[in-house]
């Protein structure tokens, strides 16, 4: 064996840590802050199409997971969700999704977190929203 060379001390060069990747989908690509401007089409079990902003659709964990898992193409099929229930889900998600101008305002101030809608208004909305038949409420919970 040859003796080690007397050279400069070894410097460990590490690559910079990778930037966290944004979830992607064939339908919408990387879901960046501008996602609010992009649209997705949700298709109910009875064939009705609903075009919604990505930020609104992503407020539903079920839909969000489908998009992140690449199950979404141009249209996201929801074979177990009727148009009646899907319209209620979209209504709920619209109220709970960060608003585009609020998110833009948060970005301009240097904060990376999205601004949540007014909590008191949401509580009042939620109280009224759940005043539906029990069967409808169960269907809503599943989406």
Question: What does this protein structure show overall?
Answer:
The chain has 143 residues and is mainly α. The chain has a single domain, classed as Potassium Channel Kv1.1, Chain A. 38% of the residues lie in helices and 9% in strands. The protein has helices spanning 54-57, 61-68, 83-96, 100-108, 119-129, 134-141; strands at 39-43, 49-53, 75-77. A hairpin with a 5-residue loop joins β1 and β2. The longest helix has 14 residues, at 83-96. 18% of the residues are buried.
Secondary structure blueprint with pairings:
Blueprint lengths: L38 E5 L5 E5 H4 L3 H8 L6 E3 L5 H14 L3 H9 L10 H11 L4 H8 L2
Parallel strand pairs: 1-3
Antiparallel strand pairs: 1-2
Query: What would the principal axes of the Cα set say about the shape?
Result: globular
Radius of gyration: 22 Å
Which CATH architecture would you pick?
A: 2-Layer Sandwich
User: Count the helices. How many?
Assistant: 6
Name the beta content range.
5-15%
Q: Percentage of helical residues?
A: 25-40%
Query: Remind me, CATH topology?
Result: Potassium Channel Kv1.1, Chain A
Q: How many domains in all?
A: 1
The H/E string reads EEHHEHHHH
Query: What structural class is derived from the secondary structure elements?
Result: mainly alpha
How are strands sequenced across the largest beta sheet? 2-1-3
Q: Give the tally of β-strands.
A: 3
Biggest sheet details: 3 strands, mixed
Terminus-to-terminus distance: 67 Å
Mean pLDDT: 73
The CATH C-level class name: Alpha Beta
Low-pLDDT regions: 11-36
CATH superfamily name? Potassium Channel Kv1.1, Chain A
């Amino acid at each position: 064996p040859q003796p080690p060379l007397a050279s400069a001390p070894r410097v460990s060069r590490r690559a910079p840590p990778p930037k966290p990747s944004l979830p992607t989908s064939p339908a919408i690509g990387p879901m960046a802050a501008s996602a609010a401007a992009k649209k997705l089409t949700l298709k109910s079990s009875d064939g009705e199409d609903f075009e919604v902003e990505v930020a609104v659709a992503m407020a539903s964990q079920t839909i969000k997971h489908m998009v992140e898992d690449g199950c979404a193409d141009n249209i996201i099929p929801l074979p177990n969700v009727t148009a009646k229930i899907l319209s209620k889900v979209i209504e709920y998600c619209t109220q709970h999704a960060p608003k585009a101008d609020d998110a833009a305002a948060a970005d301009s101030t240097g904060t990376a977190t999205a601004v949540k809608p007014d909590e008191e208004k949401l509580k009042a909305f939620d109280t009224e929203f759940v005043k539906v038949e029990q069967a409808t409420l169960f269907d809503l919970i599943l989406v």
